Amino acid sequence: MPFDQLFVFSTNLRPSEFCDEAFLRRIPYKVHIPDPTERQICELWQRQTQTHHVTCDAQWLDYLIEHHYLAQNRPMRFCHVDDLLSQIKEYSEFHEQDAVVREASLNAAVMNYFSAC
Predict the structure, then answer these.
(1) Mean pLDDT for the stretch of residues 69-81
(2) Residue 25 falls inside a structural domain
(3) pTM
(4) Does residue 87 lie in a domain region?
(5) Is the CA virtual torsion 17, 35, 106, 67 positive or negative?
(6) 76, 38 contact by CB (below 8 A)
(7) Which residues constitute the domain of residue 96?
């Protein structure tokens, strides 16, 4: 059965930091996706809370950005939203609570997710 193959390589590092020019020539298409803006993170967060069936007051998104991104000088990434909300939902389920963003669940998700950073 014939099929098409597509190789996708993704990294947050500059390609020149971990491979040489010859290797990079063998990846014909390279797409740079810049970090999201605060506005994009907020819009994505609002959409993803619905997808994850998680309730979140606006104060907790502001708290997340102020305390866990800006104060830590941590770059925002698109993937963080889905990953953090998944952890918040699982935290809530484990503690037999409604899936609502609270300070404890948000801080636990952030500490767990970024613990190696």
Answers:
(1) 95
(2) no
(3) 0.80
(4) yes
(5) positive
(6) yes
(7) 38-113
